[in-house]
Amino acid sequence: MFYNNVMRKINTQEIADCVYRLARKAALELTPSCRKAIAKARDAEQGAARFALDCILENERTAQREHMPVCQDTGMAVVLLEIGQEILLTGVPLTDAVNDGVRRAYRDGNLRKSICDPLTRVNTGDNTPAHMHIDIIEGDKIAVRFLPKGFGSENMSRLYMLTPAQGREGILNAITETVQIAGSRPCPPVYVGVGIGGAFDSCALLAKKALLREVGSVNDRSDVAAIEKEALERINRSDIGAQGFGGKVTALGVSCEIAPTHIAGLPVAVNIQCHCVRCQQEIL
Fold first, then answer.
1. CA–CA separation, 23 vs 43, rounded Å?
2. How far is residue 241's CA from residue 188's CA, in Å, rounded to a whole number?
3. Taking 70 as the threshold, does the pLDDT of residue 112 lie above it?
4. Which residues contact 134 (CB under 8 A, 6 or more apart)?
5. Do β-strands 266-273 and 190-198 pair in parallel, antiparallel, or remain unpaired?
6. Farthest-apart Cα atoms in the chain, separation
7. Residues 6+ apart with CB under 8 A from 40
8. Minimal CB count within 10 Å: which of 10, 50, 69, 110?
9. Is the pLDDT of residue 127 over 80?
10. How far is the C-alpha of 183 from the C-alpha of 33, rounded, in Å?
């Protein structure tokens, strides 16, 4: 009873409705930082690469005007929640609430349902279950982030279990190799999320979280920021270019997140995002 009296109560229906709003919005528009980065890339290019970037920008304007998805792959619903430890959740279980928001959004928005059994390939029919990650934080707020992740780019992602001796150069090689192997398949110019450290599983999550940052943002650690900068420069010397047409801009940005790891390892995960960065968020 003590906790019921002092903790902020949030019914999980509020979370379901929030996921619904974010999913509907994410389907229609790029993030402002992504839009800005594409426009900047367009001005730096010429020929076929500039034409491709013009088409990308016009596609988004059309999507918003006609209330249609900005990409036909409306993605796996990746939902990341930061929940304050001073919150008491009431109502249906949290997972059920998140899936309800996804289910209604994909139905009402006429969004493509892309989730299926990995062996039978039978579609679940409503784009659930969502791919959820939960962090417990201080305070009495909930941050809800929605990232529709298309698999043209997700399929190009890679996880490396490097040795400590491979160090900084090994990290840079892993990032650039991933983008070079991907080539034009993830619809460049790409946004590259990188996880450094942790363990086999948590490193991949770091890379996913890196994609939540604004395109062009810089890590607070100067040594990590230097890796971001050099990786982007190396990638943009690859001449893959927008949609594989060649040019100066193969990646819009590289964002790295880092965590402590074991003395015997150096995990590096590279999560590729296509040019269609659609992350949306709300605070409850």
1. 31
2. 7
3. yes
4. 80, 81, 82, 83, 94
5. antiparallel
6. 68
7. none
8. 110
9. yes
10. 23
